[in-house]
Amino acid sequence: MAHVVADPCRGCQYTDCVVVCPMECFYGDEVQLYIDPDDCIDCGACVNECPAGAIFPDRDVPGKWAAAVELNAGRVKVLKPLGARVTEKRPAG
Ligand code: SF4
Ligand code: SF4
């Protein structure tokens, strides 16, 4: 079980979510952030930090964003070797 970043994250400038994650399991590209399903311990700490309401437990992702589960896992596989881990809040804008 893991948490998943869904579509409302696209274009977010704030990255409040990454600061609270005890496992540092967020990765990012130019579109959005993704959670590493292997490292996420399902603690839920990031959920309330996200102003966009973009983070869900994988079992509760709304149907219209169901593809996010596979997308997070797939993008992390690509981004992890590239060192695209995001652990610090980015400056807004
Ligand atoms: S705070 Fe939410 S919308 Fe912003 S980067 Fe994190 S998951 Fe994405
Ligand atoms: S649920 Fe916990 S471990 Fe998983 S991404 Fe969120 S803060 Fe990190």
Walk me through what this model shows.
- With 93 residues, this protein is α+β, with helices and mostly antiparallel strands.
- It has a single domain, classed as Alpha-Beta Plaits (2-Layer Sandwich), CATH 3.30.70.20.
- It has two helices and four strands.
- It has helices at residues 16-19, 68-79, and strands spanning 3-5, 26-28, 33-35, 55-57.
- The strands form two sheets. It has a two-stranded antiparallel sheet. A two-stranded antiparallel sheet has the order 2-3.
- The longest helix has 12 residues, at 68-79.
- It is globular, with a radius of gyration of 12 Å.
- The mean pLDDT is 95.
- Residues 5, 9, 12, 14-17, 32-33, 50, 52, 54-55 line the site of one iron/sulfur cluster (SF4).
Q: Which second-level CATH architecture applies?
A: 2-Layer Sandwich
| Rg, alpha carbons | 12 Å
Helix/strand/pairing category: alpha+beta
Helix segment count?
2
Rounded average pLDDT: 95
Please give the largest β-sheet. Answer: 2 strands, antiparallel
| CATH class term | Alpha Beta
Q: What is the CATH topology classification name? A: Alpha-Beta Plaits
- The general outline is globular
Percent strand equals 5-15%
Bound small molecules, deduplicated: iron/sulfur cluster
Number of strands: 4
**What is the CA-CA span between the terminal residues?**
33 Å
List keywords for this structure.
alpha+beta; Alpha-Beta Plaits; two-stranded antiparallel ribbon; 2 helices; 17% helix; binds iron/sulfur cluster
